[in-house]
Specification:
The complex is a heterodimer. By secondary structure, chain A is mainly alpha-helical. Chain A has helices at 2-7, 19-39, 44-48, 50-61, 69-101, 108-123, 126-137, 141-165, 169-177, 182-213, 225-233, 237-265. Chain A has one domain (69-265): MetI-like fold. The chains are: A mainly alpha, B mainly alpha.
């Protein structure tokens, strides 16, 4: 008894403990990989020619060409303007939407409608929404702003509704007990509890919108993305790199500001 | 005494109020700058509701028969998302180890890893798509490469943060048994971060399902290619069917990812 225990070497426990399930997952995984890679119709000759193309690409990319600085500046400014306006619209619309989508505040009928809006706005990537709005409303920053406001609304509405669902209902009851009407209950009972979260989310939203606004120009929805796309298509990779560097810098600065503000709020 | 009674309670001191006023003022200025200088063509805006309704009319009803063409393209989209997630998980692992403060062999490696992570995260998947289409030509390979590049930094960042937060006691305990460096990592570090790696991978797969449906716009494979070609041919009823399919697949992906993550963690 004792000797069998001692002589048995220790083995690391597997992450999936049931051996049958473990092996099924492994076999299925390998089978899927083989199938998926086969299904890709890999053209090996074309892939092999990718390397010289990549080398050529990098040669043409360096050094970055900032000679069209005024165009880059205009594009970035437009992206920033789109992000600011869209964020303002969506953080204002998010207030009624999240109140409607919070199960502890809303009534069933409105709850379902608001949740449906949130799901619809969240499920499509911004670029897809942008294509549709560009086709519907024409080129320029206007469809871009609508796109950003719409997708951001879904994001903000969901997170804010969750915050509202987690508030202390005691405070709401207390305000209601003073005889306050519905509007005042929201203002003095609900709003103070979610305000820090609201401000934090707003800044985060500006961050997200700025990222998206630098890219939706690819489909004609305004901002620096259009210039980036054009320089790629004219094989002006040095200009493209310059634009990319500016985009990365702007995005990183915004991310820095956003994380600083949010960590101060918490 | 009367002085105390007559003092009205205020939530903020004068300095705080000034500070808050100042921040609000700057935000207002920013908004005014944005609203005034943005180059919007107003006739488009005025025309927007009519145009929107018009497009919607042309989209309805969705062309259900088109599903026959959508399904193979959608399978390719899901394959792109899955393969790129797998590649990103594998490639991000060494990056995460190099980037974590407590496992990096040298600050130089950490700097190197950080540059890759930041670049990967701050360049959009569509831009990665544009770049890889130049390398590999249009198609799914460029899409896989693009999404792998984009997911890499995301995965590496989250995994390296989880490495930094591990319980040192377990590592010490393994080291105390006389285990060498690789064994300490294998038995002391890895078991602690495994749930995070799996959870993050599934989360990233969910995101990649969304992204792989759009990278076709720049020619990088998947349903996006079908979408752009249908649009260029003004086949709006096909477009609406594609949009519905994307919606369904994205929701299904979100459901699968949420269920699996709940089971594992």
């Amino acid at each position: 008894m004792v000797s069998s225990l001692v002589s048995k070497a220790w083995k690391k426990e597997h992450f999936i403990k049931n051996p049958l399930i473990r092996w099924i997952i492994i076999v299925l995984g390998v089978a899927y990989l083989i199938y998926a890679l086969n299904d890709m119709n890999l053209n090996l000759a074309r892939m092999r020619s990718g390397w010289p193309r990549a080398v050529d690409f990098f040669h043409r990319m360096f050094p970055p060409d900032y000679s069209r600085w005024s165009m880059i500046y205009k594009g970035v400014a437009e992206s920033l303007q789109m992000a600011i306006i869209a964020t303002t619209i969506s953080i204002l619309l998010a207030i009624p939407l999240s109140l409607g989508a919070a199960v502890n505040i809303s009534v069933k009928f409105i709850y379902v409608i608001c949740r449906a809006i949130i799901v619809a706005a969240r499920s499509f990537p911004p670029i897809l929404v942008a294509i549709i709005f560009v086709k519907a409303f024409g080129f320029g920053p206007f469809p871009g702003i609508i796109t950003l406001a719409f997708t951001a609304l879904g994001f903000m509405g969901k997170l804010l509704a969750e915050a509202i669902e987690n508030i202390d209902m005691g405070q709401v009851e207390a305000i209601r007990a003073t005889g306050a009407n519905w509007f005042k209950v929201q203002l003095y009972g609900v709003a103070p509890q979610v305000l820090p979260r609201y401000v934090g989310l707003s800044i985060y939203l500006l961050d997200i919108n700025l990222r998206a606004s630098t890219i939706i120009g690819i489909v004609g929805a305004g901002g620096i993305g259009g210039a980036l796309f054009n320089s790629f298509h004219r094989y002006e990779y040095d200009t493209a790199l310059a634009i990319l560097i500016v985009i990365i810098a702007v995005v990183l600065v915004m991310e820095f500001i956003s994380s600083k503000v949010r960590s101060r709020l918490q | 005494m009367t002085e105390i009674i007559n003092t009205i309670w205020k939530r903020f001191s004068v300095k705080q109020s000034l500070e808050r006023f100042f921040i609000k003022f700057i935000l207002l200025l920013l908004f005014i700058w944005a609203a005034k200088s943005i180059n919007i063509y107003w006739p488009f805006v005025a025309d927007a509701p009519t145009q929107g309704v018009d497009l919607l009319k042309r989209m309805l009803p969705p062309n259900v028969v088109f599903v026959k063409l959508i399904i193979p393209s959608m399978i390719e989209t899901i394959n792109i998302a899955t393969l790129s997630t797998i590649f990103a998980v594998i490639l991000s692992f060494p990056l995460a180890v190099l980037n974590a403060r407590n496992t990096t062999p040298h600050p130089l490696f950490q700097g190197f890893a950080r540059i890759i992570i930041v670049t990967s995260r701050s360049v959009n998947e569509l831009v990665w798509g544009l770049i890889f289409v130049v390398f590999f030509g249009p198609g799914a390979v460029a899409g896989i490469a693009a999404l792998t590049m984009r997911s890499l930094g995301f995965m590496a960042k989250l995994v390296s943060e989880s490495i930094e937060e591990i319980d040192k006691g377990q590592v010490e305990a393994i080291r105390a048994t006389g285990a060498n460096g690789s064994k300490v990592f294998l038995f002391g570090v890895l078991p602690q971060i495994m749930p995070i790696i799996i959870g993050t991978s599934i989360f990233r797969w969910d995101i990649n399902i969304r992204q792989s449906s759009v990278i076709g716009i720049v020619g990088a494979g998947g349903i996006g290619i079908l979408l752009t070609s249908s649009m260029n041919m003004f086949k709006w009823q096909n477009v609406s069917m594609i949009l519905i399919s994307i919606f369904v697949v994205v929701l299904a992906g979100e459901y699968v990812s949420a269920t699996v993550r709940k089971k594992l963690i």
